[in-house]
From TrEMBL:
Pathway: Cofactor biosynthesis; riboflavin biosynthesis; riboflavin from 2-hydroxy-3-oxobutyl phosphate and 5-amino-6-(D-ribitylamino)uracil: step 2/2. Gene3D superfamilies: 2.40.30.20. Lumazine-binding repeats lie at residues 1-96, 97-193. GO terms for molecular function: riboflavin synthase activity. The keyword Repeat applies. This is Riboflavin synthase. It comes from Jeotgalibacillus terrae.
Amino acid sequence: MFTGLIEEVGTVHNLQKGKNSMILTIDCAKVIEDAKIGDSISINGVCLTVTERAGKQFSVDVMPETMKSTTLHELKKGSKVNLERAMAAGGRFGGHFVSGHVDGTGTIQSMKKEENAIYIYIQVPSDLMKYFMMKGSVAVDGTSLTVFDVTRDAFMISLIPQTADDTIIASKSPGSKVNIECDMIAKYVQNLIQPEQKGIDESYLRENGFM
């Protein structure tokens, strides 16, 4: 389990690519401090298991399903990545519940600077749109963010300067792909809704005691 609060930006040191899999080695400073073989670390929002560590580097195996359903296959040597260790049981919880199980990839439609914020619209597959609502939560490349607008096929996030400085999102551009994990609670609630209902909205959440 993660919080979506990125601890540091690491660098891809090496990639050993198979036909549909990969061994990924990351250079970093902070998340490696207490990392052990078998620990979980989120890389761009994808929960992966540490298989090797040496000095300031750790390696993970990326299986075919992960290669197919996330943006990790686009990484190259030197690519920057968001990193977060799994949440400690006694740690402070500051973001939202993030599992590290990516629901799909989105495409950045536009990025606009507005005073101290950067507004970013991200297009996502139609089957994910039911999980987005104003002021809801989403993880973009593992970063916990708030949804500030929802259109027919996209949602908007706003980066404050701290988030822009501490993650890789602001370095992207329109057309870039990002990993999307929808709000875990929204997914559980949606699963409980009767098939004939259209989806989650604010009135449904209020009627059922979620707001």
